[in-house]
Amino acid sequence: MGIENGLSAGFSPDSYDAIIVGAGYAGAVCARRLVESCGFKVCVLERRDHIAGNAYDYVDEAGILVHKYGPHIYHTVNERVNEFLSRFTEWTDYQHKVLANIHGTLMPVPFNHRSLKLAFGDQKGEKLYQKLVATFGENKKVPIMELREKNDPELVEVADYVFENVFLYYTMKQWGQTPDQIDPSITGRVPVFVGDDDRYFPGAPFQGMPAEGYTALFEHMLDHDCIDVFLGVDARDLLKVSETSVAVCGRPYGGEIIYTGPLDELFGLDLGALPYRTLDMEFETLDMDQFQPVGTVNYTTSEDFTRITEFKNMTGQVVPGKTTIMREYSKAYTPGSGETPYYAILEDQNLELYRRYRERVAGLVNFHCVGRLAEYRYYDMDGVVASALDLSDEIIAQHS
């Protein structure tokens, strides 16, 4: 792999069979597959000064491995995704657990057997739990809408408690909404877990953290003689996309282009900006071994921030006497501000705007959109990888 800052003086798009915009999961997966399966020479253009996209991690001044763009916890049920990524990293045996700070008491989320006893007291909590078991069975995730539909006052009490103390205020902070703006169909899906398993992803057979960190995983994935990576390069300065052709550096380009960035920004927002939520992240290093008992604590009834992450609790790193935590504050994304667009706001009018942008490139056989920004959807890491594997399958089939 060659990594350069900026484009080299002799940069020639025609010397590459594929140009990939973005060195995050979508771009890196496609790059690796195309060089291995098609023998392509691939160029990766990355606007930031590092690879790995939002999964980028680094060692801070205290010696703590932190995730610059927020916590990334690997989990998947997809065997193909796991097999592919496992070529480039070993995994630690990390099982993610989340607690909610509810009026000063830390309770497991999703709400479970222990949460019920903490919220309602041992005796009443156990009684409510046994009713849940009798009604739904053990080790089941039950949406609170199903609790309400039973028309049982005790089950409705559980649903109301979870809605008000776990979901409502947290969602208002996360999405900038008032209670009347929160979609009832979403609130109804908030789960209660009827069981004692307090892992956040109990159904995922593959979960953990990359043993050397996410950035190292990407370094291994992009480490190939036929992949060149150029950092600090904004592809919008090089690409000109019309409904019939793609030009790179002012000349028509006939190779494959894989685009992983925001589609509206590629067209200068000329139809309007696609809305996102972004995050302000406040890092703090503390002179202690451990700040909180788990990697993530959600603040669901208090504080302006949504959650606190403690990285050592996720990575298993041992650094005596020091720990780094991060608070997250959610807000609306402003295009052109240098902020990171994290969460697409998937409302009907926004999806229609995205569809109009996507139509502009629908007729280009060599222009491909992949990833959460280019597809304007919410993906976990494994979802991005799965989408990139599917796209690369299609391109490989065309060139076989």
TrEMBL record:
Alphabetized InterPro entries for the sequence: UDP-GALP_mutase, UDP-GalPyranose_mutase_C
Q: Which GO terms describe its molecular function?
A: UDP-galactopyranose mutase activity
Q: Which cofactor does it need?
A: FAD
Q: Which superkingdom heads the taxonomic lineage of this protein's source?
A: Bacteria
Q: In what residue span(s) does the UDP-galactopyranose mutase C-terminal domain sit?
A: 166-378
Keyword annotations of the record? FAD, Flavoprotein, Isomerase
- Keyword Ribosomal protein (UniProt): no
Q: What is its EC number?
A: 5.4.99.9
Pfam name, any one: GLF
The record's annotation in Gene3D superfamilies points to:
NAD(P)-binding Rossmann-like Domain
The entry assigns this protein to a family as follows: Belongs to the UDP-galactopyranose/dTDP-fucopyranose mutase family.
Q: What is this protein called?
A: UDP-galactopyranose mutase
Q: Which organism is it from?
A: Thermophilibacter provencensis
Name the encoding gene, please: glf
